[in-house]
Structure formats: structure tokens, C-alpha cells
Amino acid sequence: MKNLVVLTGAGISAESGIKTFRNAGGLWEGHDIMEVASPQGFNKNPELVLDFYNKRRKQLLEVKPNKAHKVLAELQEQFNVQIITQNVDDLHERAGSKQVLHLHGELLKVRSTLDENLIYQWNKDLKIGDLCEKKSQLRPHIVWFGEAVPMMEKAIETTQKASVFVVIGTSMQVYPAASLIQYVPKNTPIFFIDPNPNNIKNLYNNITVISDKATKGVEKLKQLLYKM
């Protein structure tokens, strides 16, 4: 089976109703990014940060995978599909994808502030006083600004083995995730699905641009892949 490596971003989940929650001014739900997505913000006002992610978690539990998530899962019948996602939702898993690597953490998990290896499934609100087994406060299992991206090395290794590489719903502006395309083996076909692809076609060889939203674009991708 060919290795189909797929990098996904906020655009694939937006069609399920998940807010990307960063507006044109860079604010997240009216908050400065550093207030709700940095270790400094958490230390300064943990209640605000926990409330912010509690709202995100509630919203996630109300939405469902869309056609794009489901088609990627269907492609597992023909390809070794490995998804690398910048998204913190679990919609790929709910759609049936078996190999999903989360670069920026997972909303339905929390971890210890004392020991980052203590990670727990979490579907309810997280509050001050919710402790790990070592009696330390729990925090969202999210990679915040200024923190290392622990799964990046594995993502690079996965990308280096790609037979086909696909980018869906990400502007390729968020680093280090955007750098993954540089690790795609030479002459490997690349597909880029985005309604506003900008000048991406001029930057890379062997790239096919599908100027559509994720749900329509992935259907077109499926047809192209089956013809290869």
C-alpha cells in the first residue's frame, strides 16, 4: 500500500461547525492569544484559560465529522493513510481514521502541570482543584505558544516516507507544521486543497491545487488518487 500522508488544519473542521476562533485581528473569542494560549497566560489567570478551553470542549462534543473527514477514513481501504493534524479536535478519529498524529495536542485530554507524561481523557469541564495523581493541577493537553511541539519529529519521519502528500485546510503559515512540506521526498505528488490557495503552486513542484473547501476538495482528491 502507498503511504498517503495528509496534513490537515482548521479548514477541514470549520465545515463541521468548529470555530477557528482566531479573527482577522488575531483575537481568540475576544481574548489576546497570549492570554489563553501561553504558559504565561495560564500562570496569570488559570480560571480564564480553563474556561476558554471548557467552551471549546463543549462545542466539540456538539459537532460531528463532515464528509472530508469520512472520505479520508474511506481511503484507508486503498492506502496506508497517516494523518498529521494541527487540529485539537477528535473528528478524524470519530470518522474512522486509525492513524492520527496531533501536532498541537488534543482538546479531549488534560495533563499534569507537574509531569507532562501524565495525560488523561477528559470530556467534562476542567476546574481549579482538578488534580493529577501526584496532586498537581491539571491543564489542557494543548501545545501553547512558546512550548515545544513534541510530535514534530514523528511528523517529519512520517512525511519523509510519503508516497503521496496532501495538505487540506491550512494556509501553511503556522510553523513548525508548515515546514513539513519541505520533508516530502523529491518527485512525490503533492495535492493542496484550499478555497484560497494563494501562490502555493509557484512555490513547489509536483503540486496539484484543488481550489475548493475541504468537503468538495477531498471528493475530487479521491477520484484523482484512484486514477494514479
Structure description:
This protein has 228 residues and is an alpha/beta fold. The protein folds into two domains: 1-18 and 65-104 and 149-228, TPP-binding domain (Rossmann fold, 3-Layer(aba) Sandwich), CATH 3.40.50; 20-62 and 108-142, SIR2/SIRT2 'Small Domain' (2-Layer Sandwich). The protein has nine helices and nine strands. The strands form two sheets. It has a six-stranded parallel beta sheet with strand order 3-2-1-7-8-9, sandwiched between helices. A three-stranded antiparallel beta sheet has the order 5-4-6, covered by helices on one side.
Briefly, what is this?
This protein is α/β, with parallel strands linked by helices and 228 residues long. It is built from 9 helices and 9 strands. The chain has helices at 10-14, 33-36, 39-44, 46-62, 67-74, 91-95, 152-160, 200-203, 214-227, and strands at 3-8, 80-85, 100-102, 105-112, 119-121, 138-142, 164-168, 190-193, 207-210.
- End-to-end Cα distance, whole Å, is 13 Å
The CATH class label of the largest domain is Alpha Beta
Poorly predicted ranges (pLDDT <50, ≥5 residues)?
Answer: none
Total number of domains: 2
Helix content: 25-40%
Task: Please state how the strands of the largest beta sheet are arranged side by side.
Answer: 3-2-1-7-8-9
CATH superfamily of the largest domain, called what?
Answer: TPP-binding domain
DSSP helical segment count = 9
Task: Provide the residue-averaged pLDDT.
Answer: 91
Total beta strand runs: 9
- Mind describing the biggest β-sheet? 6 strands, parallel
Q: In CATH terms, what is the architecture of the largest domain? A: 3-Layer(aba) Sandwich
Q: Give the helix/strand class.
A: alpha/beta
The whole-angstrom Rg is: 18 Å
Shape field: elongated
